[in-house]
Amino acid sequence: MTTAAVEDELRALRELLDTWNHQYYVLDAPDVPDAEYDRCMRRLQALEAAHPQLITPDSPSQRVGAAPVSSFAQVRHEVPMLSLENAFDAQEMQAFDMRVRERLGMGDDGQLEYACEPKLDGIAVSLLYREGLLERAATRGDGSTGEDITHSVRTIRGVPLRLRGSGYPAILEVRGEIYMPRAGFEALNARARERHEKGFVNPRNAAAG
């Protein structure tokens, strides 16, 4: 195969695998048999092994087989990653409501709506994309300084290595929560028991690694 032909096939395989990953891990709507996915992944890995100079950092193959990192570099957040205080009763909720109204310049009789959702108990992270490519992932840490966990986050298939679509800014920071679903936590601990290893206490600890 010519280099151009290899590049074309690599591009097609990466786009196909990215689409399938998005359908499976984000949309929860897989559209391809596992055997076909595995076949395409093996083909991609074989081509990249034969042409290592054509490997790209956003290739789906770069998610798998990542070795763990024993220590993490420090990352300073340009904008501090702040957290919300807990509210345990009606009085604390009313105090929170008053603080919000004061900041918005609203009176007690102003109409204010809140959107509530269950808390995902994981670790807060910052994902930095540059020109659509994942450049860095960091923990919140103390809010001003966190740890660089890019190496680990790249293995999470629900996190895109390259942004889909167009129109996003040249530099984009996405903040959210990395968490482990209960089913994944139980499966992880089951494998640990089979190997006579110590399991994790709860899903949050497992997500934190």
Core attributes:
single chain; 209 residues; alpha+beta; Helix Hairpins; D-amino Acid Aminotransferase, Chain A, domain 1; 3-stranded antiparallel β-sheet; two-stranded antiparallel sheet; 5 strands; 38% helix; globular
Give an account of the 3D structure.
The chain has six helices and five strands, in the order H-H-E-H-E-E-E-H-E-H-H. With 209 residues, the chain is an alpha+beta fold. Strands 3-2-5 form a three-stranded antiparallel beta sheet. Strands 1-4 form a two-stranded antiparallel sheet. The mean pLDDT is 88. The chain folds into two domains: 3-63, Helix Hairpins; 122-208, 2-Layer Sandwich (D-amino Acid Aminotransferase, Chain A, domain 1), CATH 3.30.470. The relative contact order is 0.13. Strand 2 (123-130) and strand 3 form a beta hairpin. The chain is 38% helix and 14% strand.
